[in-house]
Automatic annotation (TrEMBL), chain A:
PANTHER family: SLL0384 PROTEIN (PTHR34857:SF2). Keywords: Cell membrane, Membrane, Transmembrane, Transmembrane helix. GO terms for cellular component: plasma membrane. This is Energy-coupling factor transport system permease protein. The keyword Zinc does not apply. It is a multi-pass membrane protein. The keyword Calcium does not apply. It comes from Gemmiger formicilis. The lineage of its organism: Bacteria, Bacillati, Bacillota, Clostridia, Eubacteriales. InterPro entries: ABC/ECF_trnsptr_transmembrane, ECF_transporter_component. It is found in: Membrane.
Automatic annotation (TrEMBL), chain B:
It comes from Gemmiger formicilis. The chain crosses the membrane at residues 12-37, 43-60, 67-85, 91-108, 115-136, 167-185. Keywords: Membrane, Transmembrane, Transmembrane helix. It holds the Pfam family Trep_Strep. This is Energy-coupling factor transport system substrate-specific component.
Amino acid sequence: MTFRMDPRAKLYLLLLANLMLLFHVGTGAEAAATALCLLLFFLSGKARAGVRLSVLYFGLLAVDLFVVPRVGESVLLNLLSLVSVGVRMMLPCIITGAYAFSTTTVGELTAALRRMHLPESIIIPCAVVVRFFPTVGEDYRHIRAAMALRGIAAGRGALLRHPVQSLEYILMPLLMNSNNVAQDLSAAALTKGIGLPGRHTCMTELRLTAWDFLYPALCTLPLLWKVVTLL
Amino acid sequence: MNQKFNKLTVPDLISVGVFTALYFVLVTVATFACALLPGVGNILLPAVAALISGSVYMLLAAKLQKFGGITIMGLVMGLFFFVSGHFVLSFAANIICGVAADLVAAAGKYRSKKLLLASYVVFSYGLTGPILPLWFMKSAYIANLTARGKDAAYIDTLFAPINSGSFVVSILAILICALVGGFFGQKMLKKHFEKAGIVA
């Protein structure tokens, strides 16, 4: 059975990852919390993404621990190690974000946002954004196919040779289509009663389970331990 | 707050969502484009994004002609930056710039080309959020180096040009690129959408 976490617990984890970055917790605490977040990928049946991110994070951690102390005085090497350390410090946030993004459905997100009493004027655009991302990719492929058919910007790197033209030829059909999709979505959503006043119900039932409290609490421990030792 | 939002209807909100998604995709494209330039790339990210997404912004502004749309766009952008693992600060930067940009555009009743351009420039500064941690992390990295016994004067010479110079360059680049991108967007809007009668 795969483990499903409540979107609200995921939001808390994101906040936690951001706080760790803001307060510069030590490398040990950061690694411990990140390992816990990486474990979530494996628990949710996203083992491949989990392996990839783990290799990246622990690879950079190894660079920081074993290579950076030996870089010496070379400016170039110092710059490179700055980049590697910088990327590593950003990774906990990105890992938690990737987890939240890849495991939350539109229904869950809407239900969670409603439970958090956000106004509908924010929930609706959020749901549309999530729903619309795949459409953009699909449209892009159609546009490129149509361009190739007419022999415009065919081949690798051709887009970069006429950047302004590429921008116009790709973006304008995208915008045109988005405009139409916005109208279609509105019609569909209004038919389903999204504009009605009062409380809306959700297909997805969200319940905070014990795990939704335990796991984030576990992830908080490294940060907490750091704060305690500082005091 | 709610009073202003109430004027936006559900189709308006859906349009905001659709165009925010497009805008977010363009910012992501800009991120990847910038990642190709090692090191300095990230600093120019908001500028590149501002350069390419002018038409999205202009179309949204022309379509809605109401207060609140741009604000919500900034808010939702901030939310998605946060969820996709960017810094909490990007959330704040997007909201503040979103509201400010909305006010500027509203001053011209969403018709004045100049004020719309200005409002796009303001909105583009909201994108500095994702790169702000660069400056935060630099101090952490320096602390790291100092703790390992590197000479403080040496560290200063290493980072002096990256610090103040890059910040000014980044801010100026956003201004110029947002002006160019916004102007390009307005031109495109006129060429493709006004003639077709999609927006007035």
